[in-house]
Amino acid sequence: MDRVPEDEAAETVRQLRALATPEGASALARAGFLLDAGTDPVAALTRLRTEVGTDLAGPAWGIARQRQKARSTFGADAERLLFTADTLEQAGRPQLAARRAARLLAGGADSVADLGCAAGTDTIALARAGARVLAVDLDPVARELTALNAAALGVDDDVWVVAGDAVELVEAARGGEVAGCGAAVLDPARRAGGRRQLDPDRWSPPWSTVAMLLAKMPTSVVKVAPGLDHDRVPAGIEAEWVSVGGSIVEALLWGPAVSTAWRRAALVRDGVVHELTADADPGPAPAGPVRGWLHEPDPAVIRSGLVSLVAADLGATLVDPTIAYLTSVGPAGSPWVSSYRVDEVLPFNLKKLKALLRERGVGRVVVKKRGSAIEPETLARRLRTDAAGTATVVVTRVAGAPTALVCDVSG
Length: 411
Ligand SMILES: C[S@@+](CC[C@H](N)C(=O)[O-])C[C@H]1O[C@@H](n2cnc3c(N)ncnc32)[C@H](O)[C@@H]1O
Known about the structure:
This protein is of the alpha/beta class. It is 36% helix and 27% strand. It has three domains: 61 residues; 190 residues, Vaccinia Virus protein VP39 (Rossmann fold); 118 residues. The strands form three sheets. Strands 3-2-1-4-7-9-8-10-11 form a nine-stranded mixed beta sheet, sandwiched between helices. The protein has a seven-stranded mixed beta sheet with strand order 13-14-12-15-18-17-16. It is globular. S-adenosylmethionine binds next to helix 7, strand 2 and helix 9.
């Protein structure tokens, strides 16, 4: 997270406190109403200034806009929570924070240090799961948001918000406790200057603090970037990748007392969590020729290195040792893959592909690719004709050769 100048932070804290008063709540409600009604921002601010005063109008409008964005993730709570643009961007999903909190506390820990609380998503989830939470942040705006949000959701009796540096607290951790708590959550800021920090040594706190926390705190969990290199994961630490709707939304490293596997893939679909684990690296799946069905593994399975478990379960093989597409004789009833019926297999050649689609009456395709430089949208446009049929075209490598698989032809 970028450090905000002190004056600016003090002014934001003052505005947040003003919004937490009954007058502030009315201003927020009015701003929310105008926003939901689609009022032009300039007109809305003019009206707000007249109705609630110049001091509250701007901040109320700003928070109302963040609440509107937060609604799809935070549901009804969004109407009571306060976020700045920065803290909303860094906030995790509350359902996943609740899942993490439940697992962290399952061993009996009752006090948790949330090291870098931002707007308090993890703090609130931990308090709701029954823990006493010490919420720590370097940023005064984050601390104010966490305190106000914990109060707004009625968990403030179990939350203590303090200024502190997670780096120093972790260095001082002893006997399985950090800042007097028996468990810890660390979610380092992984953006700076509006850009993602790909190098874990540049996160805040940096990787050295992550590694030290996992070494010193048996009951801990760290949120890391989904692209984290497997080589970084310390021995005895479980790494987990979680996907929702086919995209990875978080990656976690679990402290030694909570780790129960080498790697875990978790997938959330329709509110149900599916999990897949391995106690040791299962190695790659075998490769073989393309058969009647192609299966695209969920990214959580791919990132966690568990494709071969899914392959064994489906009786499937890889189409190429370096490509994460599986193939088998029959369709798969598995949450871990999306399956496509293979209707045609041909060496990748635009002219031949066009001719084949014409022959089969296909005018619209969805293009998927793996291990190919083609641009899916561009290829789909080039393959488009007036014909009524549809298909999925998968461009990939099969046993090293650029190949097009024409799947699910219909119409
Ligand atoms: C990614 S955010 C946490 C998001 C939070 N878990 C959530 O889901 O809403 C990281 C937070 O860590 C704080 N932070 C960064 N470095 C810190 C440090 N050394 N000590 C304490 N807090 C720090 C930032 O100010 C920021 O609020």
